[in-house]
Amino acid sequence: MPKIGNIKLIKHRPLPDGFQIKTVTISRKADGYYVTLSLEDKSVPALTSEVELTLKNTLGIDMGLKEFLVTSEGESIPIPQYYRKSQQRLKTLQKRLSRKKKGSKRWLKALLAVAKQHKKIADKRKDFHFKTANELLSLIGFHRPDAERRAGGKLKYKRASKNSFE
Fold first, then answer.
1. Which of 110, 133, 140, 163 could form a disulfide linkage to 97, CB 3.0–4.6 angstroms apart?
2. What is the pTM of this model?
3. In 10 A of CB 84, how many CB atoms?
């Protein structure tokens, strides 16, 4: 790596033949460092398929504050509230952190514990979002996001702001 030198890495899957590494991004999270590779393969043609919209392959989705989403078929998915469920654990860890001398080894250890808890919440949310999206896509096989509807006004309400991030 330029400016860094050689680094050890766990390569959990091989690079496909014919692919070229375009960019490498190194990010640091609470539980370690991650390397993200951006690959390019010029032999793969661009996807161009026009799907005709019908009632069978379309689905309206309304994201809300009380329910995570409600579909046009009447199915509603509740908000999992991962943050609210882990607030007590976060409160305990943050209180432990506040009682340590700033900059000490024990303070750093407590800071890492808080960061790991936040990462755990973020990972649960991400998993929920991917599974929900996959489930919705498997129902219809095609989706078209409505760009006009955004979550802009959700954060106006103080009480609802925690739910809107779930």
1. 110
2. 0.70
3. 12
